[in-house]
Amino acid sequence: MRTLWGRANSGNVMKVIWLLEELRLPYERIDVGGPFGGTDTPQYRAKNPTGLVPTLQEDEFALWESNVIMRYLASANEAGESVWPREARARARAECWLDCEQTRLARPQSAMFWGYVRTPPEKRDEAAIAQAVKDAAAAYALIAAALDRSPFIAGEHLTLADFAWGPHVHRWLHLPIPDRPEYPSLRRWYDRLLERPAYAAHVAVPLS
Ligand SMILES: N[C@@H](CCC(=O)N[C@@H](CS)C(=O)NCC(=O)O)C(=O)O
After folding, report:
1. Which architecture characterizes domain 88-202 according to CATH?
2. 4 - beta bridge partners?
3. From 3.40.30.10, 3.30.450.20, 3.40.50.1110, 3.30.1490.20, which CATH number describes the 2-82 domain?
4. What is d(CA 7, CA 116) in angstroms, rounded to the nearest whole number?
């Protein structure tokens, strides 16, 4: 039995839902985190000591960190070969972008998203949001340059790199950012992702 713990409107949970759906791996999802709570119990912390979402559980085996969960699912299941190259260098090239999403984008993206979507206008720290937008724009410039050269982030095919960045870009393009830099290759890639039913259904949803 495979269970994904985490609320569906978390960007990090969305990555995993999209992957599970794309690979057609059966799972159940349980809402925890945010308004649902449930992440501060000893039972949940035993599965995920950070108390964050997502957590993946397969019987007694539990994993946390969204990108690790994706790597595991793509490595442990034959269907994963289509999005996770078995050849070491091809895989390593995609890994760069997975780690880069965590190290360069995750923090400013989260500050920007919380600032615009989950904070009432009168309580927003406009300077902090502006800085987050600037930092996120610099991270998107990195993948835009990669996407100038190939249709997907790590090359000719959809890989976990696209799953890691995909939920963020939908938000980036829909947040009310006044002076958002336009990266044409980023937008073309986003349009390509929208053609995928699992992305359209589970990721490209109203911001909440
Ligand atoms: N690096 C972690 C970050 C996890 C994270 O920050 N999750 C957020 C949601 S996107 C969270 O759990 N927030 C608290 C909550 O939902 O209760 C990952 O990629 O899984």
Report:
1. Up-down Bundle (1.20)
2. 29, 56
3. 3.40.30.10
4. 19
Burial class (CB in 10 A: 0-12, 13-18, 19+), 156: exposed
Measured from the Cβ of residue 52, the count of other Cβ atoms closer than 10 Å reads 18
The 10s digit of each residue's pLDDT in 5-35 is 999 999 999 999 999 999 999 999 999 999 9
Counting Cα atoms < 13 Å in the Cβ hemisphere of 123 gives 6
Find the 67 Cα to ligand 1 centroid distance in Å: 12
> Looking at the DSSP assignment, which residues form a beta bridge with residue 64?
55
Whether the model clears a pTM of 0.90, i.e. scores above it, the answer is yes
Which residues sit with their C-beta closer than 6 Å to ligand 1? 10-12, 33-34, 39, 52-54, 65-67, 102
Indicate the pairing of strand 61-64 with strand 55-58.
Answer: antiparallel
Rounded CA-CA distance 16/61 in Å is 17
Atom of ligand 1 nearest to the CA of 52: 12
